[in-house]
Amino acid sequence: MHPALSVIIFTVSSGAGLGLIVLAALFGVFQIGGGLTPNESFWAGLLGLLLTTVGLLASTFHLANPKNAWRAFSRFRSSWLSREGVFAVLLYPFALFYFVLAWQEAAPNWLLACLGLLTALLALATVFSTGMIYACLRTMRQWNTSLVPTNYILMGLALGAVILTTVLTITRGPALEAATTLTLMVLIGAGLGKVIYYFWIGEPRGPTINTATGFTRGAVRLFESGQSSGNFLNKEFGFQPSASLVGKLRLAVYGLGFVIPIVLVALLIGNEGGFAFAFIAVLSAFAGIGIERWLFFAEARHVVNLFYGQQHT
Hints:
Elements: H1 5-29, H2 38-60, H3 80-104, H4 109-135, H5 147-171, H6 176-202, H7 209-213, H8 232-237, H9 243-267, H10 275-298
Helix pairs in contact: 1-2, 1-4, 1-5, 1-10, 2-3, 2-5, 3-4, 4-5, 5-6, 5-10, 6-9, 9-10
């Protein structure tokens, strides 16, 4: 699948923003590690909404006719894309109310708790729907698995956790130690989830020319196939990076996306400063997850490639 920059920015930025919103809300509702201060909650929520907005706006550049984006909201019962849009729109008022009221300390605890839980649930539902947009496509063997929405949630939370930790290294709030520990746990979990995903897509499975034609007792060969180049299907669904490039980029995903951030976040434990470590961890994590998302699209194989002579998809 041809990796579109707009979709990569959309999934990475919105995932990070939604993950940050989830964690900021849960830290406030359950007072994890002593909870966030009003200023910490406000700035974390504002940053989360900003990243989410940047991602959603980037997604419109992938549309052939962006002015028709509103139509995506009309198929909630059957479309994960529509569900994602509806959940994202519902998230904004609840998140704004929660983070502003938490900042002003102008609401009873029960109301803040309800708003915080609704905010966290809507943010999770949005990022889950983003993953399901791809996971529901049976024509893409590498996407048609529950591992996809699971990884989207884990990597969104991982990016959000690193950002939250960075904010807390500036304010030195009471929840810094808890945030640092949670960040390490989520980064490790997201890294393991990606290992499992890469192992899963590496196993030979899915349709072949034999199964597509129904002739399963002998080897089927194509004597004539579709155009080798120059059409939409070849450009969008026939993108094939070399095996050596994929291997190098996967190492970059592990190194930049998980190993370096884990080491840098671990160095924050007991460190009186640490902002530089946390900031570099954020940059590294975004770079690693950005590469991961490029691979996510580049490694996907549509079944239409069988028509162009590829035995496996």
